[in-house]
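Researcher: Good morning. I'm working through a list of sequences from a screen, and I'd like to move beyond sequence-only analysis. For each chain I'm collecting a predicted structure so we can compare shapes side by side. This is the next one on the list. No need for commentary yet; just the structure.
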Amino acid sequence: MVFRTPLINARLHKSVLMSCVVLMLTGVILAQDEKPKEPVADKPDAPAAEEKLFEVPDGSATELFAFMTKVKRTRSKERTSDASMAHLKLQVEAVLAACVKIMAGKPDEAMEIRVINEKFGALGALTRVDKAAADEGMKTLMESLEADQRPAIVALLTTRKLSQKVASVATMSDADRDAFVNELFTVIDENGLDRTTYSLVSKVGTTLGRTNKSEAGAEVYERLAAAMEKCDDVTLRTRADRAMGSARRLRLPGNFMEITGTTAEGEDFDWSAYRGKVVLVDFWASWCGPCRAEIPNMKAQLEKYGDKGFAIVGVNLDTTRDKYQGYVDSESLTWTNLMSDKDDERGWDNPLVVHYGVSGIPTAILVDQEGKVVSLSARGQQLNRLLAELLGDVETDDSGS
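Model: Good morning. C-alpha cells for this chain:
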C-alpha cells in the first residue's frame, strides 16, 4: 500500500519532527538495563513504593510532561529480570495515564501531537513486557488517527507508517524494497527533506548495508545525498558529503580501500607498506564502550596471527590527544593509529570518517592481502573466522608440525 502525504507547511514540518520523540521514551526506559545497578536489599514494600512513585499527579500539561520525563528516567531498584519488567510496566502505565489526563484538558494541536508521540513511545516499550497488549494498543491508536484529517496528524501518521515499513526493509523482496524507497523519495520530492525523512531514509541505507544488499544501500545513500544538497535545512545540506561517504563505504567489499592521513605521532601514513598483509581498519574512540570491548580479542588475534601477516590500523575519533594517549598507554596498544593534528579534523570530523560516511563505532573493516575489502563488520567471532580463512588456523598448523 502506498501512503501519500499532503503538502505540509514549515510549521507543520516542525510538528512532525516531534515524531522522533517516539524513540526517546523507549531509549530512556531501556537504558535502565544497560548500566549495572547497585544491589539493594529485598524489601517487602518495594512494589508499593514503586507504584506510589508512578502515581499520576494532578496538574497542568507542562507539569504532567515533566512527570513523564521523571518516570522515564527512574531506574529499577532491583537488578533481576522480573523486577525490571515489572518496573517497565509501571513506567508505561504511568506515561499512558498521564497522556489521558493531558488530553482531558483539550490541549492545542502541538501539545496533542506531543501526547500522541508519547503514546507511541510507551506502547513501543510495552512490547518487552506484553507484546500482544502493545500490538493491540498500537493498532487502536493508529485507527483512532486515521479519521483525523488535520494536516499535522495526517503527516504524523504517514511518517509513523513509513517508519514501521523501514523496520522490515531488510526482509522485503527487491521489487517491494525498490517501491518503498521510491515512495520515501516521493514524499521528499513533494514536501522537501527534513530531519524526520532524513532519519527514515538513512535507516534504510544503514539496514541494507548490514545485509547482503549493500549495493542497494549505497544507491539509497546516493539519492539521499542529492536530496540533502538541495534541502532547506543548513545542517543537513552541509552533511551531504557524509551520506555520499556512506555510499562509498558500502561499495568497498571486493574493492580497494584507500587510506591517507597522519598518524598520532605526526607522521604521514604509508598505506602501501601494508600491502600483502591482512589488515583490520578499526574506527574507534576511547569513550566508546563497544570499541573497548573489542580490544582484548583484537590483541589476542594480533598475537596469534601477527607473524602470519595480520596487522591493525586504528582510525581514532577522540577529540583530544590526551584522551587518546591515556587509553593507548593504559591498554598497551601497539598498532598504528591515525589522528589529525588539527582540532577541526578530530572526532566525527576525522577526514576518513567523513570520507567513508562512518556514523557509528566501532566500524571494523577487514582488508585482504591484495588490499581488497572482505568485510565491513569484522568484529568478534566474525574477525576470528575470517582470519582463519585468510591466514590459516594457527592451532592446526602447530598440531601438524
